[in-house]
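Predict structure. Chain length: 254.
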Amino acid sequence: MSEKHLQAGDVLPAYNGKLRLFAMRFCPYAERSVLVLNAKNIDYDLVFINLDHKPEWIFNFSPRGTVPALEYEQGKSIFDSNIINAYLDEKYPEKPLQASEPLRRAQDKMIVENFAPAQSAYYTAAFNPQNLQSDMVENFHKGLEGLQKELEVRGTKFLHGSDAGWVDLTIWPFLERFLCLPLIGKTEFAMDSSKYGLLLAYIEAMKTVPAVKSYYLAAETHAKFTESHAKGDPNYNMLDTSAVCCMRPRKKKE
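Prediction complete.
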């Protein structure tokens, strides 16, 4: 899989019959769908998109040009991580990721909903720090406290149970990115081990989940991308070392 992000003027790769997910490597919403595909062991292709210079054809799969978008048949797609992941869980039921009981499914959705303010605070802190307000920091920690309390009440390794499920894979991409905030100077977002011991243990457990482990990026990597974004030139291809190697010979030939 290439980590190169395709942009305006680039040709759409040939369709080879597999499910194809259009994503951006540093997008938490796209990661949600990647994790569900991984957890279900579905064979799929992944195409990364430069969201600042979008290829013209992405609008054929996602009317707003957003990611993720899933091409389920050639030229046919659905978009939005919640819609995609619900579709995948119903289309491929062999390994269900949602709880079997209606009440627990509803409770899981409430966890995700209650966690949303923490996600919003993260986006402001990382990409619009000039608009960061004290109540956003409070909302961030309220979200973490609520998550830790839920872990205490459930008493299981993961929120889903002994294995990670939909609720875990939905909130994980943001927890992964939260860890980079102190590295970019936002120390008020640090997770103190004396306060968040159970949550930090959960985070370490999530890193070992096969679906997560194969796609996980360290906090330092997220910090570097965030810093490049702050400078006005997001380095989408910072992980594409193969592309860098391939570019060098071309320059010598010119």
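Summary: The chain has two domains: 5-96, 102-213.
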